């Protein structure tokens, strides 16, 4: 099966919607450029699944960023994505981190920032503390604060695969949450191995075989870094002439590295001159 895919589903007899995301190749590509500790690998997988689920709940064209920051050994973990389910991510850490480190053990006193940047309209930012038991619980609190819609989130990652489920009450005038509570109890029984190995249709049958569920066409989830030689050149032009000349005098070139994918773009004196002449220099990459 396609191992990087998101499905949406609806219950015909309840004002509840759901999503399933299953990741493998895109998850591996995010991890491949770095030697992350095991706990950070798992965290980034959960964060990728979470960002995909969040993006699918929002009807807009634009970008989303889900960022965790703290004062612990892990200072940053971020996944950036967009409405086309294109994701990239990175984490920063120091020291030794236990394989089974909790969210609080990794980040210490921390918070999660979710930023939505639509192509048209105003930017929105929501902030939630990381004092909940895990990332899923933090996201449920985010929805409770920002949308005020009962939401259940399940997240799993093992360094090879990542997956997640979201269950949410539809924004209707109904005051009844009994259907959601019943479906939430069923959803809570899902196991990581099932999400890693089963098709979405089989997952839904396993959980809701007595319910009427509509499964919609899947959406591919992909990894893609947005770095480029052009962007690196633009960043160089923000430096002062004195800084540029000092670096060239010492190193003979300026290397611009991407923190996400570890691609390096090199600019020598001729390339720099071309930048200021309105060109982007040679297309060579190192």
Tell me the Rg in angstroms: 22 Å
Please, how many helices? 10
Structural class: alpha+beta
The backbone outline, from C-alpha atoms, is elongated
Q: Approximately what portion of the residues adopt beta-strand conformation?
A: 25-35%
Average pLDDT confidence is 89
Q: How many strands?
A: 14
Could you list the spans in which at least 5 consecutive residues all have pLDDT below 50?
Answer: 280-286
Order of helices and strands: EEHHEEEHEEHEEHHHEEEHHEEH
Query: Span between N and C termini?
Result: 35 Å
Biggest sheet layout: 6 strands, antiparallel
Helix content: 25-40%
Write structural notes for this entry.
The chain is of the alpha+beta class and 286 residues long. The chain has helices at 25-32, 38-57, 103-107, 135-146, 178-187, 192-197, 200-208, 229-236, 241-251, 269-276, and strands at residues 5-11, 16-23, 62-70, 74-82, 86-93, 110-118, 124-129, 151-157, 162-169, 213-215, 219-220, 222-223, 254-257, 264-267. Strands 1, 2, 8, 9, 10 and 11 form a 6-stranded antiparallel sheet that branches. Strands 7-6-3-4-5-12 form a 6-stranded mixed sheet. Residues 280-286 have low confidence and may be disordered.
How do the strands and helices of this protein lay out in sequence?
Elements: E1 5-11, E2 16-23, H1 25-32, H2 38-57, E3 62-70, E4 74-82, E5 86-93, H3 103-107, E6 110-118, E7 124-129, H4 135-146, E8 151-157, E9 162-169, H5 178-187, H6 192-197, H7 200-208, E10 213-215, E11 219-220, E12 222-223, H8 229-236, H9 241-251, E13 254-257, E14 264-267, H10 269-276
Parallel strand pairs: 5-12
Antiparallel strand pairs: 1-2, 1-10, 1-11, 2-9, 3-4, 3-6, 4-5, 6-7, 8-9, 13-14
């Amino acid at each position: 099966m396609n191992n990087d895919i998101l499905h949406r589903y609806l219950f015909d007899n309840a004002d509840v919607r759901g999503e399933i995301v299953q990741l493998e190749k895109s998850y591996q590509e995010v991890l491949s450029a770095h030697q992350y500790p095991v706990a950070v690998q798992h965290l980034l997988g959960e964060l990728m699944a979470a960002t995909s689920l969040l993006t699918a709940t929002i009807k807009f064209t634009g970008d989303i960023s889900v960022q965790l920051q703290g004062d612990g050994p892990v200072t940053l973990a971020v996944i950036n994505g967009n409405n086309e389910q294109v994701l990239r991510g990175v984490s920063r850490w120091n020291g030794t981190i236990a394989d089974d480190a909790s969210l609080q053990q990794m980040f210490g006193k921390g918070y999660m920032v979710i930023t939505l940047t639509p192509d048209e309209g105003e930017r929105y930012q929501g902030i939630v503390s990381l004092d909940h038991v895990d990332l899923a619980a933090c996201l449920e609190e985010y929805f409770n604060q920002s949308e005020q819609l009962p939401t259940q989130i399940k997240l799993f990652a093992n360094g090879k695969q990542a997956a997640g489920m979201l269950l949410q009450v539809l924004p209707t005038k109904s005051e009844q949450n009994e259907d959601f509570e019943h479906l939430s109890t069923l959803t809570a029984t899902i196991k990581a191995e099932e999400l890693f190995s089963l098709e979405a249709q089989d997952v839904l049958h396993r959980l809701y075989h007595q319910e009427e569920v509509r499964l919609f066409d899947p959406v591919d989830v992909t990894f893609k870094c947005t770095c480029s030689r052009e962007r690196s050149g633009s960043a160089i032009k923000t430096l002062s002439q004195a800084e540029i000349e000092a670096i060239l005098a010492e190193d003979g070139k300026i290397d611009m590295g991407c923190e996400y994918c570890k691609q390096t773009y090199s600019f020598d004196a001729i390339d720099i001159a071309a930048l200021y002449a309105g060109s982007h220099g040679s297309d060579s990459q190192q």
